[in-house]
Amino acid sequence: MSVQWMDTVPATAAAQSLSPDSDPCPTGRIAGLDVRAGRPLPFGATRVPGGINFSVYSTGATAVTLVLFRRGAEEPFAELVFPDCYRTGSVYAMTVFGLSADDFEYGYRIDGPWQPERGDRYDSSHILTDPYATALGGRETWGEPDDRKYRYRARVAPDDFDWAGDRPLNLPMQDLVIYEAHVRGFTRHPSSGVHWPGTFAGLAERIPYLVELGVNCVELMPVLEFDENENRPSGLHNYWGYSTVGFFAPKASYAAASRYGRQTDELKNLVKQLHAAGIEVILDVVFNHTAEGDERGPTLSFRGLDNRVYYMLTQDGHYYNFSGTGNTVNCNHPVVLRFVLDCLRYWVSEYHVDGFRFDLAAVLGRDSDGSPLANPPLLETLATDPILMHTKLIAEAWDAGGLYQVGSFPDYCRWSEWNGRYRDAIRRFLKGEPGTVSEMADRIVGSPDMYLRRGPVASVNFVTSHDGFTLHDLVAYNDKHNEANGEHGADGDNANHSWNCGHEGPSADPGVLALRRRQMRNALVLLLTSHGVPMLLAGDEVARTQHGNNNAYCHDSELSWFDWHGLAANADLLRFTRRAIAFRHAHPVLRRRWHASGHAHGALFPDVSWHGVRAWTPDWSAHGRLLAVMFHAESTGAAEGAPDTVYVAANAHWEGHDLELPGLPAHLAWHLFADTHSEPYAAEPGAEPRLGDQERVHIGPRTVLVLVAREPGGS
Amino acid sequence: MEFQGKMHAENGVATIRLIGEVDSRSAHRLNELIVAAAGRTPRRLVLLAEDLTYLSSAGLRSLVFAHQKMGRDVEIVLVGVRPEVAETIRLTGFDRSIVMQEAVEER
Hints:
Distance between the termini of chain B: 32 Å
Order of helices and strands of chain B: EEHEHEHE
Oligomer: heterodimer
Shape of chain A: elongated
Strand order of the largest sheet of chain A: 15-16-19-20-21-22-23-24
Domain STAS (chain B): 3-107
Pfam families (chain B): STAS (PF01740)
Largest sheet of chain A: 8 strands, parallel, barrel
Number of strands of chain A: 31
CATH class of the domain at 592-710 in chain A: Mainly Beta
CATH superfamily of the domain at 592-710 in chain A: Golgi alpha-mannosidase II
Strand order of the largest sheet of chain B: 1-2-3-4-5
Protein name (chain B): Anti-sigma factor antagonist
Number of domains of chain B: 1
Organism (chain B): Actinophytocola algeriensis
Number of helices of chain B: 3
CATH architecture of the domain at 592-710 in chain A: Sandwich
Helix content of chain A: 10-25%
Family (chain B): Belongs to the anti-sigma-factor antagonist family.
Largest sheet of chain B: 5 strands, mixed
CATH superfamily of chain B: STAS domain
Structural class of chain B: alpha/beta
């Protein structure tokens, strides 16, 4: 039987022609390319039938030129000056026909006044990247220098990813357990055993680990394109990446698929797979400054497009520096506000991101002259935007200009905050500092002194984050050890509230080591039984160390990578963390949406009550170092009608104590979930052993106990 | 080498043989063959890639297009694709939507 094969049509102009009834046709030629006046919206470069639509705005430009490159070419193949009739307002728009999104890179030259004292820094000798570029070329390989004249090369990203029904998970905020991780650092270490170390795909390979650990949200340190080589003369990398060059572009070198221009798909696939595993994705975004620095910094994009619009400037044209990096984004300027909004909408709609953590977010509430606004337009806009309506918004509510807004960040009943006061209170209590019990009490019930109107979900609780000591180092060092950062110890926080347990740094003393491990367990279990949203730093569950460095932003090395050998070496701590997370998931009484009142409202116990060595008798005195809290709910959402009662005792005293327990009705008994002093340290949730003595329990020195009331034999 | 494609369909199986380079200039011609194949409402689409010398990002886009054009019920089998292309397909999760084989399997 003969087979009839259909052949492709020969490549002729006819085959590529546009359908005459609907598609726009060229109306002119510029620099040898077919063009027509473009559409001003959307901004950026967009696929349209037959070509690409370019739209860029600049308030002070006198002329704008589109510069086109073949992918990777040093020199452009065409420069197209926008005819004046292609301008609408201050928006320059042009459709260029015959361009394929996969083949070219583009940038802009902006002509305009050079008057730095007035804030204008237009200079057409620079080729500027498009702030709306959805992908950037040139940074595909981590650490590889790019000395081309035009470095961060705007591209049009593929947009054909198949989400197969995925969408943001919309987990209730109070149910989250956040895990803060660095994409490269998570699997870059040879011990990770993944096929694609240090990439989105590598992280995706390790999703089973996250599932087993029990976290349901990963917060990724910056994945928007940055240049890790920006401090190249110093020989150090910008490993963390808090220095954005492409706000719409994923970091190409975090993607093994970037050599095919498919970094966008690799990140989308990571999000999709995390969602399939029940894990949300929060991106750490940096809108307080850009990578352009101050007047000594490079001109990459914003400075040459509209310096006066994008940056906060002094009256004589210098850069305000509330970010500590040289410049400050002028976030509440209406144009910049819309840029930020467009960007976040893009990440939510295109990448299905579940939330954002905003670096130095106090900057986002400042006016153009830097003064704090009572009602910052940007923060209100983000809080009320329809596309972002269910997106988690978390502020790092301070900045480098001294504005500290933890507890007072303009929140519109939407914003949560990194609760820096939780971190400090827990650290000081665990150290055994006097006078810390009463503040610690406020912190573990969701900081009602700060967030009563907003509920505990406003408080993202943490003991450690990427910024500062790891948990291991918090209990192994009194002082930071940042010599390797090359700043002679000038960088990094000095107020760490850390304690080395008797010896600075590595120790062979079994007593010191045992105490450190107990202190780590204490911190983890307090964090995971507190009201509010707990956040863990990746690696703390396996005692990751940075050898006392509390500002490892510049180290792309084993100092900062997750060492997967730790899973075996610290199996007991990992198991403890996993069980503490599972215990939190099992007990709705720990995950309150609204603060407890202290009243019983006819129930068996108040929703929160305080205890000491004697039940119902807390010691609030300045020399007290022991406190117990009992959480109770008569019926909880998870199991209607089933009461949930959890008792947490924290002893920061160097001596043990006997605790009198609150009496339970006859059908209930106290069961021991965790005793950080004695093995096995924590039980499998639901299988906690019954306490032999139901009236008294011993708490060891520097120990946390967690008890749960339930019917003997049941769970 | 310029792209050439051939398609035939019988017994519910559409087969497209890819020869030469699929890049941004030729990808639309592959798309046309995919549209023609979809018109035969096959239950299976086999893409023979042994004679494919190059598949660009635009070519990958054609594969995604094939998946979306055919619908979820049609199995798409990609045969003999080069290792680096196979890797990219895996990295972007597209391997969950198609079947990759080193050679044609009898079935």
